[in-house]
């Protein structure tokens, strides 16, 4: 099994970018009918701050093998593009860091010294979880370091820890029920509103309607970690084997839809693979990030398909366009 940290983190980053870029299309009122009919809106789909910051995390891990907070802060600040939809507090902070400010002081001073409890630390961290999938407890400690560069409030940190744990567990556990997935994630999250929300998500796993689940769990409309992360983990848990269904379920709930879809896409991609024909409509990732091309499919379904193809007497025919998610994966 040729799965290493870079492959997993790269898969997660592409999944995150796809969720972010496609999800953000549904802020455009004219695209609403596409969401209602679960069809793809016209491209190209541009990614937002979620992807830009996740690229910095990927780059730091690829270069250092761990989170160096000073390097990460410098990368966030150097690559901060005002037009990518940053929250005002984070945008202002990154501008000040770029002008020579100390990220430790600036992050701690936000919101009258409480620190930000926004979902910005959670939205970018799934590739880190995938990188450290062999050791979820270590992933969570690294996620905490990555969060504190901009978000020091305990709920924001807990949100990042939860998403990193989820990405690690999704990438490393072949057999996983939705309930077991959320139980394992919750073990890595400190007490507080995020963990309470994951507990509520656990109780709602039999609910089919994402709008109903989001009414209880939140959908990111308040852009807080605790209003965002529990719902995303509910959606990921409900669709652990199907990236496309997970996306549509998440997008249907509305709210901070680029971020909720970025989290779900990032959590699942190293497990499920990514629909290649969707990915082709996403704006290219920034050149400075040095992200490799997507690796061949390392998901369980992809490996099984590869094994079948290797043992088949006749060449495997390509699937028809627009086919099932597994067929998309096999095509890659
Ligand atoms: Mg965004």
From TrEMBL:
Residues 301-314 have a biased composition (Low complexity). Binds 2 magnesium ions per subunit. Mg(2+) binds at residues 48-50, 256, 258-259. Keywords: Hydrolase, Magnesium, Metal-binding. The keyword Cell wall biogenesis/degradation does not apply. It holds the Pfam family ADP_ribosyl_GH. Gene3D superfamilies: ADP-ribosylation/Crystallin J1. Residues 294-332 are annotated as: Disordered. It comes from Planomonospora venezuelensis. Its cofactor is Mg(2+). This is ADP-ribosylglycohydrolase. Signal peptide: none annotated. One of its GO terms (molecular function) is metal ion binding. InterPro entries: ADP-ribosylglycohydrolase, Ribosyl_crysJ1, Ribosyl_crysJ1_sf.
